[in-house]
Design brief:
There is one protein chain. By secondary structure, this protein is of the alpha/beta class. It folds into 2 domains: 92 residues, Rossmann fold, CATH 3.40.50.10860; 148 residues, Rossmann fold, CATH 3.40.50.720. Helices cover 43% and strands 12% of the residues. The chain contains 13 helices and 11 strands. Helix 3 crosses helix 13 and helix 4 runs parallel beside helix 5. The termini are far apart.
Length: 336
Amino acid sequence: MWTPSDIAAFGRPAEKIVPLCYPHSYMSGTVLDGKKVSREIRDELRPRIDALRSNKRAPALAVVLVGDNPASQIYVRNKIKACQELGIRSIELRPAQDITTEQLLEQISPLNRDSDVDGILIQMPLPKQIDVNTLNLHLDPMRDVDGFSAYSLGRLVRNEPAPRACTPAGIMELLKRYQISIAGRRAVVVGRSDIVGKPIALMLLHENATVTICHSKTRDLAGECRRADILIAAMGRPAAITADYIKPGAVVVDVGVNRLTNEAEVVRLFPHDTGRLAGYAKNGSTLVGDVEPMAMQEISSAYTPVPGGVGPLTIAMLMANTVKLAEMRLLGKSAG
């Protein structure tokens, strides 16, 4: 454990340190290990990929990265690496930043018709001049590996088979593999995005949870969150969910990934995490989710860490969607 003098070396006066209510080793929350579950999912995919390769060919994923957004480049690199590790063929398209919607459609259309392409991923975010809705309308629903198209979302609403959005699908896998009961429990989703908030709310509803979606206009957000047996935080605001928002014993899933560069905030949020503080001292930044980490660890019955919780599952479910689409195309398997 770091002493006040250690922490003061980061620029925060020692007398302002607020100790934990009890030692770090006594925290009650079970860690929902996304890395572990991601490895399990990938291991389960390997024999299916081998079977596809033996019968026809390897699954194939086309990734479209527009421009040179540094964060998107990292995400795409990780996805391509996962493909390589599993034996999934990857195709990369890298259109220029100033491409128009019409020009991008011209590049995507051949992929829609290519019998050797099973999934198409268009990396978000896209430049402002690109009409995302138009792209989604033109994307072949049977290659919509991200589950973002109107067809896929409509099938989700009806609880019918189709590719599911990867991050929400990963959350559901995590809950199920840790045998966290969902039926009859109150779930609160903070965030209403089309890629996480809305899909995870529907998935929880289909598992018979009682679901509330909260957003920036919600009155008494803390009060709504405190009612949750399962709390999903996905609003993209660093450590915005504090102890006042968490019911003791709740399961907390933190979807947020926010980069912190403020020294005082890092020390406040991770006062006893020597590894995190050392990493910050070396790199000048660290990652934090949408939930205050100490509060989540102390109060919850189970929680996802950041990093290492939801993030690894997003790529694992992308791989799973690619393999499923390949099985449907090559082996005639149903979407169920």
